[in-house]
């Protein structure tokens, strides 16, 4: 993914440090940063440069002892659409990476909204890409289904499938397109055949984390995030069963008691049926403390799901659609590092890292 380059002040804001510190890190890390061609030789940082600096700082802070590793799997899921789930997922992955963490985010929605948010074409064939002047790396030819052990169309390795829109140290993406729907069909057929398909993803993650599956080696990642479709499916259920946490955004403008109640019942049923259920974390989106309705909904949620409620929220802002429609097509936390919404996303990301028990670089 390309985008408008950043000046050093914006980089310092994204990394939560000073301009002088950024300049020192560039020299210490030996990172090659372009300079403005005309006028003052101002450094112009790419998104890749920024994530490289974040990783360098994190690694240096860990020192020779190394980072205390705790791999975490989380699914970002809401039973109904329109709550800002994918926008939050894409921005959180970037914020986690800006803390120096290695992130793998998996688009499990065959509509591919997260994949498009990260700048990839989900509907073009290779021939159409060539005709449009695009490289094959900009289109989607494989997805999470291609990584599963029994994929009938030829299994591929993670290295073949993964996209790196912001370079090696930014979030890595397993993309999605319409053909991902075939995986849900495959899981359904396997269930009819008496196979325990609901644990397919959990087994993949277990073997991948242990380095036992050369096709799906995920040992280097700190967090694996699934962005699941709103609809209930075998694919979504499998991701939730494989997760340590379910992060559920709720719209404080159009809060649905039924939606949260449904999700809570699903997690309870999982615990009863298979003795496994991820921890629920609720994130309030479109929050407006000045609206009586919002505050009433807040009271309802905190009374019923107090342990799950995250004490940081995100307000409605025009910055989100503006960032998505901008020429750079960057997630908001990169497109507008000085935005109040970015500050809120940063606070939510840090609070989530604390809840997930992951070292905040």
UniProtKB/TrEMBL annotation:
UniProt domain AAA: residue ranges: 75-275
Pfam families named in the record: AAA_31
Protein name in UniProt: Chromosome (Plasmid) partitioning protein ParA / Sporulation initiation inhibitor protein Soj
Taxonomic source organism: Candidatus Burkholderia pumila
